[in-house]
Specification:
6-stranded parallel sheet; Rossmann fold; DNA-binding; 41% helix; 4-stranded parallel sheet; homodimer; 434 Repressor (Amino-terminal Domain); alpha/beta
DNA sequence: ATGAAAGCGCTAACAT
DNA sequence: ATGTTAGCGCTTTCAT
C-alpha cells in the first residue's frame, strides 16, 4: 500500500511541492486557480497529507496530547467532550492515550504522548504521584484536570467543598454514623476525605473511614463487611459514583432499603448516578465544563508559554436525589 | 522546550547515532558495555526517542490505529481492553481516534488515522455507510469489529442469532405484543431487526417496530408514546442496553412495573445492564472477546497482507435476568 | 505567485 | 561492533 505523496500531487498538478503544501494548509500565497487545481488532483489521487512528516518538518504548535484515565468511567467521556468542544473541534490534532483504573498504565501512556512530541498534554484523572509527574512537567507543558499537579496548569472542582456539602447534607438529615468510603490514597486526591473529616469534626461526630478502590465490586465487598453489623452506619458517602453503586449492591445483598435503612451519596454525577428508578444523590463536578476550561487553559498556555501557571477551580454542586433521607424514618 | 535528540545522546556517550538507534530498539549488534553506557547517558539527559521521526524513517509495521465509536458507551471500553490485551500490551504503538454517538465524526476520525500512516486500523462500531468506507479499505487494511464492513476483516457476534434468542425468549414467556425499539438504519446494523422479524414471523405474531436512536433519552421519548396507550406492548426488545435504560425510564414515568407490567430486554451486556437491584435481561455480545479476536485478526493481517479477508463470528449469549417475565402475571 | 534547497530526527543499507 | 550516508515526506527560508 504505497501511499500518495505530496510530490505525486505536485507533479500531477504541474507545480512545486511547496505550493501543494501551502494549499493544503490553507496558507496564503497561492492563486485561487492553482489552489483549485491542486485540490482537484489531490482528490483524484486520493491524497491524504502525511501528518507524521508534517510534524517532523514543522516544529510544533500542531498537536495536543490527551490522557484519559479510564474509559470505563464515563466521567472521562464527558471531560473529553468538553475538551473537544473547547478546542474548537476540527482545529488541532489530538493524540490520545489511555491509562487504567489502577494507574498502572499512566506512565506508559504519558510516555507515548511525549514520544509523539505533542506540544502540550491535557491529562484527566492522573493517578501518578506528584513526584513521578515532575519528569513530564519539565518536558512538556501539562494541563491537569480533575487532579491537582504541582508544576502544571490545573483545572478542577473544589473537592473539599464538595465533600463538605455531601457530608453536611447527611448530617443535616440527622445521620450520625456516616462512613466515608475512601478512594486509594494518592497525591491530588486527598481533599474529599478532608472535607468529610472537617464536616464531621465540626458537627462533633466521629469519623469512620473505610479504604476502598475505584472498582464497584471492591466497594461492595469493602462496605459489605460493616453493613451486616448491628452497629452499622446509617449513611455512606462514597468517593465516587461507581463505588456508590457498589454500596447499593451491598445494601441489597444485606436486605437494606435505600434510603430508608441506608442513605448513600456518590460523587461526580457521572451517568452511573442516573439509574431508572433510583437516582443517586451525588456531587456534580461539572465534568464537561472541566473539559472546556482545560481546553481554554491549553490554548492559553500554547499562546503564552511563559505565563505563570494558572489554577482554575469551579464549585461543585450537591444534587440531592433519591438515595438520601432521614435515618430510620425514611423521610426526606 | 527544546527536546533531547538521539544526536545529543550519541555525542554525550561518544558513539554514533546509529548505535544509539540500535540500542533503543533493542536490536542486536551493540556490545553490552556500549548499550549500557548509552542508556545511562540517555537517562541522564532524560531522552525520549522521537516516534514521529522514527516512523517517518522506518516505513511502517509499527503502529495500529484504533477507532472507537463512542466513549459514553462502555461497550467500547471493553472492546478496547480486549484489544490491548490481545495485542500483547506494550508491543505496538496505538493511535486512537474517537467518533461520536451519531456517527458524524467517523470520517474525521478515520482520516486522522490514515494521516498518521498507521499500518492498520481496528475499528469498533463504525456507523458510516459501506460505500463511504470503501475509500479507507483501499488505503489501509481495516479490521472492523461489532460491525460488518465489506472489504475488511470482520470480527463480530451473530446479531441475527442474538436478536432471535431475545425475541424467542419473550415469545416463550407468552408475550404477543412485542415492540422492537430499533437502532438507526445503517449498513451493517440491520440484523438485529431481522432476527426479531424472523422470530415474530415464525411464531405468527405481528411485528411492531419503532425507530429510535442510540441515546437513552430519545429511546425514552420514542417508546413513551406507545406505553400510555391502552393497547400497549407487554414487552420491549431494545437494540442496545442504553436504549433499554430509556425504556425503563419511560416505564417508570407511566407507572408501569418491570417486569410485571412490561418486560424489557436489552442488547450488549454493557455495564449499563447491571443496575443495583435491577439487572437487565440482555444479550451478551462478549465485547472483550471481540477485542481480543480483533487483535489476533490485526496481527494476522499485518503478518500476511495478501491473505484472503477473514470473517470471525462468535455466538451471543442470552442472559435472562430481572427485567423479563410472563406478561400480566409477573411470573418468571 | 511560484520554485529550489536545506533541514526536521530518525532508520537502514553499506562500509569499515 | 561501530560509523557513514542517504533518504522518509513534509515545512520553511530564500530566491525569482
Amino acid at each position: 500500500m504505497k501511499s500518495v505523496t505530496m510530490e505525486d500531487v505536485a507533479r500531477a498538478a504541474g507545480v512545486s511541492r511547496a505550493l501543494v503544501s501551502l494549499a493544503y494548509r490553507n496558507a496564503p500565497g497561492v492563486s485561487v486557480k492553482t489552489r483549485e487545481r491542486i485540490f482537484r488532483t489531490g482528490r483524484e489521487l486520493n491524497y491524504q497529507p502525511n501528518r507524521i512528516a508534517a510534524s517532523l518538518a514543522s516544529k510544533s504548535q500542531t498537536s495536543i496530547g490527551v490522557f484519559l484515565s479510564d474509559l470505563h468511567n464515563d466521567l472521562f467521556a464527558d471531560i473529553f467532550d468538553g475538551l473537544r468542544q473547547g478546542l474548537g473541534d476540527e482545529s488541532r490534532h489530538l493524540v490520545l492515550a489511555v491509562g487504567s483504573i489502577d494507574g498502572q498504565r499512566d506512565n506508559a501512556a504519558l510516555d507515548t504522548l511525549v514520544q509523539s512530541r505533542v506540544d502540550l498534554i491535557v491529562a484527566a484523572g492522573l493517578l501518578l504521584a506528584d513526584h513521578d509527574l515532575a519528569t513530564y512537567t519539565s518536558t512538556t507543558p501539562l494541563v491537569s484536570t480533575a487532579r491537582v499537579v504541582p508544576g502544571a496548569d490545573n483545572v478542577f472542582t473544589n473537592n473539599l467543598s464538595g465533600a463538605r456539602q455531601a457530608t453536611e447534607h447527611l448530617i443535616g438529615l440527622g445521620h450520625q454514623r456516616i462512613v466515608f468510603l475512601a478512594n486509594p490514597r494518592s497525591d491530588g486526591y486527598l481533599e474529599r476525605g478532608m472535607g468529610y473529616r472537617q464536616a464531621m469534626g465540626e458537627a462533633g461526630l466521629e469519623t469512620w473511614e473505610i479504604a476502598s478502590s475505584y472498582a464497584r465490586h471492591e466497594a461492595e465487598a469493602d462496605i459489605g463487611a460493616v453493613l451486616r453489623s448491628s452497629h452499622r452506619p446509617t449513611a455512606v458517602f462514597a468517593h465516587n459514583d461507581r463505588s456508590a453503586l457498589g454500596v447499593l449492591d451491598a445494601a441489597r445483598h444485606y436486605g437494606l432499603s435505600v434510603p430508608e435503612d441506608l442513605s448513600v451519596v456518590g460523587y461526580d454525577n457521572s451517568s452511573a448516578s442516573r439509574l431508572p428508578g433510583l437516582e443517586l444523590t451525588t456531587v456534580d463536578i461539572h465534568a464537561r465544563q472541566l473539559g472546556e476550561l482545560s481546553a481554554h487553559a491549553a490554548l492559553t498556555r500554547l499562546a503564552e508559554p511563559t505565563d505563570a501557571l494558572q489554577s482554575i477551580s469551579i464549585d461543585p454542586t450537591l444534587l440531592v436525589r433519591g438515595t438520601s433521607s432521614h435515618p430510620a424514618t425514611g423521610r426526606k
